[in-house]
Structure formats: structure tokens, C-alpha cells
Amino acid sequence: MNWKTLVAAAVAAAFALPFAASADNDRPKSEKAAGSAASGRTAGSAALFDRLDKNKDGFVTRDEARDATELQGRFAELDKDNDGKISRGEMRGLDNDRRGAAGSTK
Known about the structure:
CATH class of the largest domain: Mainly Alpha
CATH superfamily of the largest domain: EF-hand
Low-confidence stretches: 23-27, 30-42
Number of strands: 2
Mean pLDDT: 74
Number of domains: 2
CATH topology of the largest domain: Recoverin, domain 1
Order of helices and strands: HHHEHEHH
Strand order of the largest sheet: 1-2
Structural class: mainly alpha
Number of helices: 6
CATH architecture of the largest domain: Orthogonal Bundle
């Protein structure tokens, strides 16, 4: 490949990057959620879990969840094994609740 071709490709890539990034932002939230669900994790519970697990031990304790309005009054419900902490798998219950609520017609 010659020098001019490499420079032209680099310039084209530099100009294309902002357009590619904005294309993802233009997608509806439902499409973004479907894309993240396909990867095995949904953005909702995974992001919340990562934010709350302050010591990065793989669990959210009652103390870590104290200021989380998303979990107010729901900690015991999500803590299926009653060990006083919520695992990543238990946190996915929030996503299941959201999907059920979104699909209901009441």
C-alpha cells in the first residue's frame, strides 16, 4: 500500500467515528436493552450492581444498598437465600420485574 492510500484511509476513519458513535445514541432504548440482553446481561441490573458493590466482592450488602432508592424495601425480596447480601444473579430479579411490568397491559 502506498502512503497516500494509508493517509486517505486514516482521514476517512477519523471522520466516520463520530457518525458511528451518534448512530448508537439515536437508537431507541428498547433496542439498546435488547442488544445488551443478548450479551447475557442487561444494562439495568448490571450497572446498578456495579455501582453499589463498593468493595467489589461480588455482593451488595444492606450497608452498600442503604442509599439505593431502587432497592428501598426490596432488599429482602431480592435476597433469595437470606444471607444478608445480594448476588449478581439475585440482582437480575429487578430486570425480570421490569420486563414483566413492561409486558403487562394493566
